Amino acid sequence: MNFFKLLVSIVLVLTVFVNYSAADTRLTYKSASSTSSYYQMAVQIAEAVKKRTNGEITVTVEESQGSVQNVMEVRSRGADYVFTTPPALVGLAQSGKAMFEGKGDPAFDEIRALFPIPSLTMHFVARADTGIETFENLQGKTILLGKGSFGAREGAKYIKLFGLDGKVNLAGSELSNAVSALKNGQIDAFVTAGSFPAPNVIEAAASTNVTVLSLSEDQVKQTKRTRLVIPANTYTNQTSDIVTTSLPVVAYATTKMSDDTAYKLTKTFWAGKDEMAEVAAWWNGVNEGLISNISGRIHPGAIRYYKEAGISITDAQM
């Protein structure tokens, strides 16, 4: 009799455990360095998902060394893996080109998009008293690009594209020194890339009168990047829109993730976006229009949400 009661108790405990496990979905969100804004975004998403699903979906945020690492880990990860990267890198992985040459894997073909997050947005920030209002005005000026980052590489590329190679002085300092160097007159301008409004641009505009340069439509085409408009009044004393370029960034999963989980995660993200924007303004830069920047396929579960919400999806994204 005691053995029978023990057996029944064990069955009941296992039943409760199985039911709990089935109802509770745990995901891993691979983002960026813990010091970056993208890591902070990941933490916000994790908190919003837990809150809005009443704990049904919990997200653990993992630090990353970069988008290439995030994509590479698809080869060894399971259904719980969510990661961020520019769509262009997914395309390179799936075609085995550039940094993925010789490292192809069938798992890359199973990558599917969920939702866009704030884009890496180019900012050319100049001290207003230098008279710099266009890229032509940068001639003879001292510019800080920083080292090793996307913004530094992209800034150097634009200097060449716009005929400024050898005509500007490049400051040999870290980007972390940009705001103080601008304020103290050690540099005339700096280049930075990040979600907008960018914290270092906010700081610069608050402490010094600055001008954030706008690109012409022809210049945007030359860069072969995605056109983006920073609305007027995003930064102190910015009275008009700024036309610039960006590198879209998207949250991805793979086909290993169930359609239901992808649907709930995507729906929860969009439902909580405005609330997240109350804490961090960079979410104001995310809207339905950014879905068009997804060059690859979208997860079927996410597509279900977009169809319910009346958001257009192209045939190439299906």
Describe what you observe in this structure:
The protein is of the alpha/beta class and 318 residues long. Helices cover 36% and strands 21% of the residues. The protein contains 10 helices and 10 strands. Strand 1, helix 2 and strand 2 form a beta-alpha-beta unit. Helix 2 (37-52) crosses helix 9 and helix 9 (259-277) crosses helix 10. It is globular, with a radius of gyration of 23 Å. Mean pLDDT is 92; it is low at 6-22.
Which spans of ≥5 residues are poorly predicted at pLDDT below 50? 6-22
Oligomer: single chain
The helix/strand class is: alpha/beta
pLDDT averaged over residues:
92
Helix and strand string, N-terminal first?
A: HEHEHEHEEHEHEHEHEEHH
Helix content: 25-40%
Query: The biggest beta sheet, please?
Result: 10 strands, mixed
N→C terminal distance:
59 Å
From the structure above, extract its key features:
318 residues, 10 helices
Describe what is shown at a glance.
With 318 residues, the chain is an alpha/beta fold.
List the helices and strands and how they pair.
Blueprint (H helix, E strand, L loop, with lengths): L1 H22 L1 E6 L6 H16 L4 E6 L4 H6 L8 E5 L1 H9 L15 E17 L14 E3 L5 H12 L7 E3 L6 H6 L5 E6 L4 H9 L2 E3 L4 H7 L2 E5 L11 E13 L4 H19 L22 H9 L10
Parallel strand pairs: 1-2, 1-3, 5-6, 5-7
Antiparallel strand pairs: 3-10, 4-7, 4-8, 4-10, 9-10
Helix pairs in contact: 2-9, 9-10
